Amino acid sequence: MKNYKKTYFLPVLIIGISFGLYSFSKVNPRNYNSVKDVDSIVIPAEVQTIIDNKCYGCHNTESRGEKSKKKLNFDYFTNGDYSKGKIISKLGKIKDELDEDKMPPEKFLAKYPHKKLTAEEKTILENWIIDQKKVLAGE
Amino acid sequence: MITVVIIIMQLYPFPKPEIIANNPNDLIKSADVPENVATMLRLACYDCHSNETQYPWYSNIAPVKWWVYDHIVKGREDLNFSDWNSLSKSDKAEFLDGISTEVSDGDMPLKPYPLTHPDAKLSDADRETIAGWAEEYMEKLYE
Secondary structure of A77-115 in the HEC alphabet? Predict the structure, then answer.
């Protein structure tokens, strides 16, 4: 029994590792392409920066506010939890909030005035939404 | 004295939201809504969110009517199932998302409504069914 183990262990390990590497190298690029080109949202760096600085704190999986993360969770945009329909809905809801200057909430801005969106940031977000809705929803 | 006040209240004009029976763009008529969901939406939502409001007798008496009519005006303004099929796809997605959130959080139907409409009371399982339907429909819109 001991001998048997010794003879087979190394080849099996090598085959296993090669197989692992092989499938890894195959799957990764394919996933990347199909997700990025067809179904998934594209978030350019300048948009990501605004979201990170002004919105993400209240709208991610680890946020303390139950209501804010339930209504909008930016992590779900990219990890597959939001369906395409859901992403399109959330983009529309962000647009609604921006149009009425409702986000970040006024109460929060009273304490942290530097978190207010500048006019320029608002325009960047709005153009991004219009563009993504066109790409994703064809509208 | 109170009788006089109530009679005077009745004279205060407050237009009654119109009932329209024929709505070709209605959600249940135009989309493929499972029967159990359709029944729940009719019983729990349609009085405020469609043109087919059924007014109980007391809802036409002031001061109750001011309150009831106001909910119907606002409810229809926000979301009117009678106009469903005239909405764009992305508006449908937003409403379905809203329905899923409002119903699973227990915010809809408005809290006092099931007190006078026992059929509109939704169990936790009912709420899950409606939210699940809304999420699935939202996904199917873009398949």
Answer: HHHCCCCHHHHHHHHHHHHHHHHCCCCCCHHHHHHCHHH
